[in-house]
Protein backbone atom coordinates (compact mmCIF):
# COMPACT_ATOMS: atom_id res chain seq x y z
CA UNK A 1 0.00 0.00 0.00
CA UNK A 2 0.94 3.59 -0.42
CA UNK A 3 2.37 5.26 2.64
CA UNK A 4 1.57 8.67 4.03
CA UNK A 5 4.10 11.26 5.12
CA UNK A 6 1.56 13.26 7.11
CA UNK A 7 0.69 11.87 10.57
CA UNK A 8 -2.79 13.42 10.31
CA UNK A 9 -3.49 11.43 7.15
CA UNK A 10 -2.37 8.25 8.90
CA UNK A 11 -4.73 8.93 11.81
CA UNK A 12 -7.64 9.62 9.48
CA UNK A 13 -6.93 6.46 7.47
CA UNK A 14 -6.89 4.41 10.68
CA UNK A 15 -10.07 6.07 11.92
CA UNK A 16 -11.89 5.30 8.66
CA UNK A 17 -10.66 1.69 8.72
CA UNK A 18 -11.76 1.24 12.34
CA UNK A 19 -15.17 2.71 11.58
CA UNK A 20 -15.62 0.41 8.58
CA UNK A 21 -14.54 -2.62 10.60
CA UNK A 22 -17.14 -1.71 13.21
CA UNK A 23 -19.84 -1.38 10.55
CA UNK A 24 -18.88 -4.74 9.06
CA UNK A 25 -19.21 -6.49 12.41
CA UNK A 26 -22.75 -5.12 12.58
CA UNK A 27 -23.53 -6.56 9.11
CA UNK A 28 -23.69 -3.33 7.14
CA UNK A 29 -23.50 -3.61 3.37
CA UNK A 30 -20.71 -2.44 1.07
CA UNK A 31 -22.99 0.45 0.07
CA UNK A 32 -23.18 1.50 3.73
CA UNK A 33 -19.39 1.50 3.97
CA UNK A 34 -19.10 3.58 0.82
CA UNK A 35 -21.60 6.09 2.19
CA UNK A 36 -19.73 6.26 5.52
CA UNK A 37 -16.35 6.81 3.87
CA UNK A 38 -17.70 9.39 1.42
CA UNK A 39 -19.19 11.36 4.31
CA UNK A 40 -15.97 11.19 6.31
CA UNK A 41 -13.86 12.26 3.34
CA UNK A 42 -16.27 15.08 2.48
CA UNK A 43 -16.02 16.38 6.04
CA UNK A 44 -12.23 16.39 5.72
CA UNK A 45 -12.50 18.31 2.44
CA UNK A 46 -14.86 20.86 4.00
CA UNK A 47 -12.55 21.43 6.97
CA UNK A 48 -9.42 21.60 4.79
CA UNK A 49 -7.73 19.37 7.35
CA UNK A 50 -5.30 17.81 4.90
CA UNK A 51 -3.30 19.19 2.02
CA UNK A 52 -4.81 18.46 -1.41
CA UNK A 53 -2.18 15.83 -2.23
CA UNK A 54 -2.75 13.96 1.05
CA UNK A 55 -6.53 14.19 0.64
CA UNK A 56 -6.39 12.69 -2.84
CA UNK A 57 -4.04 9.95 -1.71
CA UNK A 58 -6.32 9.12 1.22
CA UNK A 59 -9.39 8.98 -1.02
CA UNK A 60 -7.74 6.63 -3.50
CA UNK A 61 -6.36 4.38 -0.80
CA UNK A 62 -9.68 4.11 1.02
CA UNK A 63 -11.49 3.25 -2.20
CA UNK A 64 -9.04 0.41 -2.92
CA UNK A 65 -9.09 -0.72 0.72
CA UNK A 66 -12.88 -1.13 0.78
CA UNK A 67 -12.85 -3.23 -2.39
CA UNK A 68 -10.14 -5.57 -1.07
CA UNK A 69 -11.69 -8.57 0.77
CA UNK A 70 -8.45 -9.10 2.70
CA UNK A 71 -9.18 -5.82 4.49
CA UNK A 72 -11.95 -7.56 6.39
CA UNK A 73 -10.26 -10.56 7.96
CA UNK A 74 -11.18 -11.16 11.58
CA UNK A 75 -8.52 -11.54 14.31
CA UNK A 76 -8.69 -15.34 14.05
CA UNK A 77 -7.68 -15.23 10.41
CA UNK A 78 -11.11 -15.89 8.89
CA UNK A 79 -12.97 -13.56 6.61
CA UNK A 80 -15.79 -11.59 8.18
CA UNK A 81 -18.71 -13.24 6.43
CA UNK A 82 -21.10 -10.47 7.43
CA UNK A 83 -19.62 -8.31 4.71
CA UNK A 84 -18.80 -10.83 2.01
CA UNK A 85 -21.64 -13.23 2.61
CA UNK A 86 -22.44 -15.02 -0.63
CA UNK A 87 -26.15 -14.23 -0.12
CA UNK A 88 -25.35 -10.51 -0.39
CA UNK A 89 -23.45 -10.79 -3.67
Notes on the protein architecture:
It is a single chain. The chain has one domain. It contains 3 helices and no strands.
Which labels suit this protein?
89 residues, mainly alpha, globular, disordered C terminus
How is this structure best summarized?
This protein is 60% helix and 0% strand.
- Estimate percent helicity: 55-70%
Number of domains: 1
DSSP strand tally: 0
Mean pLDDT: 82
Derived structural class: mainly alpha
- As a percent range, the share of strand residues is under 5%
Low-confidence stretches: 82-89
Tally the helices: what do you get? 3
* Biggest β-sheet strands, sense, barrel: none
What best-fitting shape do the alpha-carbon axes yield? globular
Q: Any idea what the radius of gyration is?
A: 14 Å
Order of helices and strands: HHH
N-end to C-end Cα span: 26 Å
Topology diagram in text:
Layout: H1 7-25, H2 30-47, H3 52-67
Amino acid sequence: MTSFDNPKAIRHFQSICDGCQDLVTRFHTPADLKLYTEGYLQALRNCSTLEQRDQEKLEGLIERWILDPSSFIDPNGGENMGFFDKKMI
